[in-house]
Specification:
heterodimer, A: mainly beta, seven-stranded mixed beta sheet, four-stranded antiparallel beta sheet, globular, B: mainly beta, six-stranded mixed beta sheet
């Protein structure tokens, strides 16, 4: 069974750094792209970017380029989304996804990130 | 403003048929890129509902169907049920942005 399990909710202050994770199981982790999707409170889905864990080839949406970093550690089947300096506007639910039949055929349960002073 | 345009809301009575449109442009749907649909039930993660325009993943009832023509796509739901009340999103690839894009989402209310 394909599963994407994300790390737990986080609360940070503006300016702090953060790295959240997504562990894949039940499939060949290195041969499927893994993506990240943002959902701000009460809003729609936004595609952030995607990584191929096999060689770490990474693509970003223009809206998120330079704002976040996507990485992967294929030895532990985990992808990451990180911020170097959080803003209040980064408060959102973040989902990891697997690209299979569609850009997101499987979804993680979501990680809620709250940035507040 | 989303690259793919969906109606903010649609509604229907139990048993009725509703459709949700997804309008794009020549750099995404019109360029031949596939459209996928996701269902997000209240308080849960989105789930793949339809892939590559008209294909249902295993477990999705055949009450759901998808189509694509020109620069638009549609999701149809027949025999509407209370459990269908959710937000629905379309997604495609956009060559101008070199990445995937979502529609703004449509809230389906079952009256």
């Amino acid at each position: 069974e394909v599963q994407l399990v994300q790390s737990g909710a986080e609360v940070r202050k503006p300016g702090e750094s953060l790295k959240i994770s997504c562990k894949g199981s039940g499939y060949s982790f290195t041969t499927y792209w893994t993506g990240w999707v943002r959902q701000m409170p009460g809003k729609g889905l936004e595609w952030m970017g995607i990584i191929y864990p096999g060689d770490s080839d990474t693509r970003y949406s223009p809206s998120f380029q330079g704002q976040v970093t996507i990485s992967a550690d294929k030895s532990i089947s985990t992808t990451y989304l990180q911020w170097s300096s959080l803003k209040a506007s980064d408060t959102a639910m973040y989902y990891c996804t697997r690209r299979g039949n569609s850009d997101a055929d499987y979804w993680g349960q979501g990680t809620l990130v709250t940035v507040s002073s | 403003q989303s690259v793919l345009t969906q109606p903010p809301s649609v509604s229907g009575a139990p048993g009725q048929r509703v459709t949700i449109s997804c309008t794009g442009s020549s750099s995404n749907i019109g360029a031949g890129y596939d459209v996928h649909w996701y269902q997000q039930l209240p308080g849960t993660a989105p789930k793949l509902l339809m892939y590559s325009n008209s294909n249902r993943p295993s477990g999705v009832p055949d009450r759901f169907s998808g189509s694509k023509s020109g620069t638009s796509a549609s999701l149809a739901i027949t025999g509407l049920q209370a459990e269908d009340e959710a937000d629905y999103y379309c997604q495609s690839y956009d060559s101008s942005l070199s990445g995937s894009v979502f529609g703004g989402g449509t809230k389906l209310t079952v009256l």
